[in-house]
Amino acid sequence: MPVGPPPPTYAQPPPGPVPGVPPGYAPPMGNFPPGVAHARVVPLSAHQIRERGPAVVVLLSVVTCGLYTFYWLYSSTDQLRRCTSDASLKPGVDVLLALLTCGIWGWVVMYRNAQKIHAALVGRDPMHQDRSQMILMLCVASLAIGVTALISLYFSQEEMNLLARASSHQ
User: Fold this and answer.
1) pTM as predicted
2) DSSP codes of every residue in 31-84
3) pLDDT for 80-94, tens place per residue?
């Protein structure tokens, strides 16, 4: 027997332009959380992102002494580019810069990708929390406590999985 009220459902934006709402934005709906009037709905291409177990990603990164992380960085950025049709994402350049900077650029990429994932998800689920700053802080903290980089990798893959599910349920 369920206890309490059912979780809120969020209506899809109506087709066509809505007076008073900029193109590409959902109209204000009464069941959005306070402070969120409308959010841009980023179109997603279905089945472009492969779900991976976050723990497996971390384990493979540890077992391969970080080499899998560069593959994951390329693969996840490429999948994000294809799913969101965002031509500004350049996975090859990102991996090259990450290699040249001993992984530091990879932190920037994980932060940027988390922001792009949040932008794509918040239009579908206004309650989605932006984890990009937490991911960046965990990466920077890895300078003192190395394991936090693996935790940020775990959260980054969780965000990718959320986007994979959202794009397959359109």
Assistant:
1) 0.75
2) TSPTT----B-----TT-S----HHHHHHHHHHTTTHHHHHHHHHHHHHHHHHH
3) 999 989 999 999 999
